[in-house]
Amino acid sequence: MNTTLEKKFINLLEEHQNIVHKICRMYTYDADAHKDLFQEITIQLWKAYPKFREESKFSTWMYRVALNTAITLYRKKKRGVQTLPWENFDFKMSAEGYDSTLDDNLKLMYSAIKELNDIDKALVLLYLEDKPYTEISETLGISEVNARVKMNRVKTKLKRILNP
């Protein structure tokens, strides 16, 4: 792959890496798993990047690849998914420090969200990012009406989890 494409990818990844951190936080339970998932998502983004046609925003495409990777990886976890060694890739990027200290209310919310199924977690994550329903539906591959209906149901589930 040419170095111009590589530099562009690294710049975009560094600019939007918080998306990947948020997904990792949603789908993992400890720092090691977070790092492993971040690495796997980065590798999958790199492998898919040459096919990115810029028909959507990079961040939307990144969410889709990252969510699909997280969901697939953790559904197959019981079967022992092998990740590719980080050393096999030529590019390296600087990662901002990730601070996982949150106030108690945010911890409660994340705990409740982790009780949801994979698709509902993804929906909430995008909703909390203030993504419009058109972008949410595009990212998740569902209709906009379905995204709205599912979100209302998820809000009800979260209320039940947080206020039993």
Automatic annotation (TrEMBL):
<dbReference type="GO" id="GO:0016987">
    <property type="term" value="F:sigma factor activity"/>
</dbReference>
<dbReference type="InterPro" id="IPR013324">
    <property type="entry name" value="RNA_pol_sigma_r3/r4-like"/>
</dbReference>
<dbReference type="Pfam" id="PF04542">
    <property type="entry name" value="Sigma70_r2"/>
</dbReference>
<dbReference type="GO" id="GO:0003677">
    <property type="term" value="F:DNA binding"/>
</dbReference>
<dbReference type="Pfam" id="PF08281">
    <property type="entry name" value="Sigma70_r4_2"/>
</dbReference>
<dbReference type="InterPro" id="IPR007627">
    <property type="entry name" value="RNA_pol_sigma70_r2"/>
</dbReference>
<feature type="domain" description="RNA polymerase sigma-70 region 2">
    <location>
        <begin position="12"/>
        <end position="79"/>
    </location>
</feature>
<keyword id="KW-0804">Transcription</keyword>
<protein>
    <submittedName>
        <fullName>Sigma-70 family RNA polymerase sigma factor</fullName>
    </submittedName>
</protein>
<comment type="similarity">
    <text>Belongs to the sigma-70 factor family. ECF subfamily.</text>
</comment>
<dbReference type="InterPro" id="IPR039425">
    <property type="entry name" value="RNA_pol_sigma-70-like"/>
</dbReference>
<feature type="domain" description="RNA polymerase sigma factor 70 region 4 type 2">
    <location>
        <begin position="109"/>
        <end position="158"/>
    </location>
</feature>
<dbReference type="InterPro" id="IPR013249">
    <property type="entry name" value="RNA_pol_sigma70_r4_t2"/>
</dbReference>
<keyword id="KW-0805">Transcription regulation</keyword>
<dbReference type="GO" id="GO:0006352">
    <property type="term" value="P:DNA-templated transcription initiation"/>
</dbReference>
<dbReference type="InterPro" id="IPR014284">
    <property type="entry name" value="RNA_pol_sigma-70_dom"/>
</dbReference>
<dbReference type="InterPro" id="IPR013325">
    <property type="entry name" value="RNA_pol_sigma_r2"/>
</dbReference>
<keyword id="KW-0731">Sigma factor</keyword>
<dbReference type="InterPro" id="IPR036388">
    <property type="entry name" value="WH-like_DNA-bd_sf"/>
</dbReference>
